[in-house]
Amino acid sequence: SNSNFIPVIAQIGVGQDVYSSSVFTVHIDAGCPDPHLATFDLALSSGDDPIATVSFPINITAHPGIHDSMEAGVGAWTHSGTRDQWHQTAHRSTSPTHSWYCGTENTWQYTHENDARLETPYFTVGTVTEMAFAHFYATEVDYDFCMVEINNGSPFWNTLAIYNGSSGGFQDAFLSLAPYGGQTERARFRFTSDGSVAAEGWYVDDFWAGPM
Q1: pLDDT of residue 1
Q2: What is the pLDDT of residue 124?
């Protein structure tokens, strides 16, 4: 639980989009609860004149990957958002009886104007560079979307894949995690819909990232 300030000073030229500086490490005491939260402060200045400071939370965990068949309950998964309909269901699944579903139970349709997010627990990518899951989706083509995103605890999410239309049944998806090797990450399944026309929605099952 100790906190250390590590200054890293970088000169970024006008029009320069990317800058790579020295690698720094964060030491976690053995008794600190998992996962751990550190804060990265980005101080911006022009010469000696300060402009702004932006803080980013950084989550760190020793948990090597994640494997969830959705049969042991909600666990550490979380969900939120506008008209959030994510819940566990026995209506459709791959192994053997439960999956996460974004839609309305019994009517088997999603509502309009959704922006609902289902998030995995944090996991360490390690040397494994692939994430996999089974999913079934049925949405209005070109208007309602199923998005898979990844994040390290900061306010920003990176999109890995976008699906819409109909999968025609459960499909296996495999997404590269190569850019995130050695990092602590979490994935989320984000479902969005517009104000008209609805279909069945999105089911997610058998998620894994890391050692099987």
Answers
A1: 43
A2: 86
